[in-house]
Amino acid sequence: MKYHNKPHTFVDLVELKVVDLQRSLEFYENIIGFKVLEQHADKILLTADGKNALLSIEQPSGIMPTQQKTTGLYHFALLLPTRADLGAVLRHFAESNIRIGAGDHLVSEALYLNDPDGNGIEIYSDRPDSDWKWENEYVEMATLQINAQSILAEGANTEWNGLPQGTVMGHIHLHVSELDATKKFYNALGFDVMTPNYPGALFMGSGKYHHHIGLNTWAGVGAPPTPENVVGLKTFSVVFPTNEELQAAITNIIEIGSDIVEENGVFVVQDPSQNKIKLILK
């Protein structure tokens, strides 16, 4: 997964708030295929490879069900190593009678579903980057119907045993209140616009990846932030390849007028829609 390692800046651990931790754990183990890395009374870290946490689910006291038309998580996206792995997941969903959406985005093929709290999930595989079509600095993306039979055929000899080794957090897609200041904020973190012409959406990436960050105003321009005591995104991590690039991002963030705080030795910022981000080295 070359776009999710040095020298690129990329998204890593996504941390969610849920209403019922046990219900969520059963879903994420049995349907999505995560394994438990660490389990605490009110928080569980989930992994694909047994070493690195990709997702955290947490049940804070007094947590309330989801609210619509707010900023926050649209979906987090798990990138599988191969198209055959995607075929195995698609077969697993069909055999488990899981309702899903799907989209062929030219650069990737994706499946979509929600967890029990309504948190959006994408599971996808990338097409080879040699097949991506570019116009100047922008990559061509669309949302077309997938060829499900072709994907299933590709995965016919691949057994589904949960998320395969090599699965990474491919990207995160956020509801935001507006796009201009938000684009400026993620530019400051080191992400460039990759696809500018989606209605009400922007896709931004590092190192010519089609996107590590998706942004949309589909919950409404001016949408308010999700209240602290409501399920959804708690925070996500952005990993920098070097300390120099992390420090440059911190400087950029301060220069555009955003606040940055240090929590337990980690720099934490909020985008203009109050989505919370940890800036880390790995």
Automatic annotation (TrEMBL):
The cofactors it requires, by name, are: Fe(2+)
Q: Which residues form the VOC domain?
A: 10-126
Under PROSITE patterns, the record lists: EXTRADIOL_DIOXYGENAS, VOC
Alphabetized, the UniProt keywords read: Aromatic hydrocarbons catabolism, Dioxygenase, Iron, Metal-binding, Oxidoreductase
GO MF annotation terms: dioxygenase activity; ferrous iron binding
Q: Which Pfam families match?
A: Glyoxalase
Keyword Metal-binding annotated: yes
Highest taxon of source: Bacteria
Per its UniProt record, what InterPro entries does this chain match? Glyas_Bleomycin-R_OHBP_Dase, Glyas_Fos-R_dOase_dom, VOC_core, Xdiol_ring_cleave_dOase_1/2
Family, similarity comment: Belongs to the extradiol ring-cleavage dioxygenase family.
UniProt protein name: VOC family protein
